[in-house]
């Protein structure tokens, strides 16, 4: 039977408990409050769309899309006239269409950054 010295190898690779503690980064989510500027991104089959909105108590805020994002949505939906936050599920974006369609296209938000 042979003995394998694992402890010395772990000391070199794992470091001390203090080293490990310093590497932990906690990302605190900033809550949306009325009046917050919120920057979002959502991914479509043609590309990533970016925009921002001002959070309100009523919900269903209009998203101010950058020009390239509006072009992407208009390629996907020629009758697209904008995008709004989903009123019930804040993780989704609704695409507004000028012509009636069975249901509204929706996209899940890829990233959200809340600023003051």
Structure report:
- The chain is α+β, with helices and mostly antiparallel strands and 116 residues long.
- It has three helices and six strands, in the order ααβββαβββ.
- It has helices at 6-14, 17-23, 67-76, and strands spanning 37-43, 48-54, 62-65, 80-85, 92-97, 106-115.
- A six-stranded antiparallel beta barrel has the order 1-2-3-4-5-6.
How is this structure best summarized?
This protein is 22% helix and 34% strand.
Topology summary:
Blueprint: H1 6-14, H2 17-23, E1 37-43, E2 48-54, E3 62-65, H3 67-76, E4 80-85, E5 92-97, E6 106-115
Antiparallel strand pairs: 1-2, 1-6, 2-3, 3-4, 4-5, 5-6
Could you give the count of β-strands?
6
* Secondary-structure element series: HHEEEHEEE
Helical stretch tally: 3
Specify the overall morphology.
Answer: globular
Largest beta sheet: what is the strand line-up?
1-2-3-4-5-6
Write down the Rg: 23 Å
**Structural classification:** alpha+beta
Nearest-integer average pLDDT: 82
The largest pleated sheet is described as: 6 strands, antiparallel, barrel
CA(first)-CA(last) distance: 65 Å
